[in-house]
Amino acid sequence: MGLPEERQSQAERRTRSEDALLDASAELVAERGVHGASLASIGGRAGVSRGLPTHHFGSKDALLARLAQRAQSRIGQEMQEAQRTRADRVGGLTALEEVFLAVDSYLEMFENPTPDQRALLVMWGSTFPSSASVDGMADAERRSYEGLSRLIMSGQQDGSVRSDVDPTATAVLLHGLMRGLAALRLTDSGLTDMHGVRETCRDWISSSLSPR
């Protein structure tokens, strides 16, 4: 049974309000950094009262944790959609090909990043030093490289990945490569030839992980 009409509309209004605040926080974090995005400025950017961010999220840390979760979830969904599209087109992928595609689709997103994607990198940077870490970023990072680790183990099972590589260590290495290159893309004023970088990444992953 659905919610009564009045309660449902209240829930919908709350969701819209929270989405607007998260959108505003993504823009401000991307523009000003974590410390430069205050709750008051987020409320102002969203066009609501300055106290509404606190009302919805309780604290800036909680708001940023939700933003990190949303950004990571959206990136994951886009990468999965790219994998489904490619698999439908070529009739299935080996696990190693899925690793290629995961890295390539991630880097492709950062050729024209959304505010959420930019903000995620800024929040990732805020984890150095760890005492300044955004709540939720460590979990978001762990989910990302655990997914890569599972793909690598699947590749070892289907024979597309060398059996002697350490899935966890390799996943952490790939994850760091993806994050670092995306950050470089945002900071080098467009000087990086990302097409060439993506091709080189594919060649490097293939030479490193393909069975000898």
CATH topology of the largest domain: Tetracycline Repressor, domain 2
Instruction: Specify the helix fraction band.
Output: over 70%
What's the end-to-end separation, in Å? 58 Å
Total tally of structural domains: 2
Q: Which structural class matches the secondary elements?
A: mainly alpha
CATH level-four homologous superfamily name of the largest domain = Tetracycline Repressor, domain 2
Q: H/E order of the elements?
A: HHHHHHHHH
Strand content: under 5%
Can you summarize the main beta sheet?
A: none
CATH architecture of the largest domain: Orthogonal Bundle
The CATH class label of the largest domain is: Mainly Alpha
Task: Report Rg.
Answer: 20 Å
Task: Note down, in words, how this protein is organized.
This protein has about 210 residues and is mainly α. About 75% of the residues lie in helices and about 0% in strands. It has helices at about 5-30, 40-45, 50-55, 60-90, 95-110, 115-125, 135-160, 165-185, 195-210.
Key traits:
9 helices; Arc Repressor Mutant, subunit A; mainly alpha; 2 domains; Tetracycline Repressor, domain 2
In short:
The chain is built from nine helices and no strands. The protein has helices at residues 5-32, 39-46, 52-57, 60-90, 95-109, 115-125, 137-158, 167-187, 194-209.
Reconstruct the topology from this structure.
Blueprint: H1 5-32, H2 39-46, H3 52-57, H4 60-90, H5 95-109, H6 115-125, H7 137-158, H8 167-187, H9 194-209
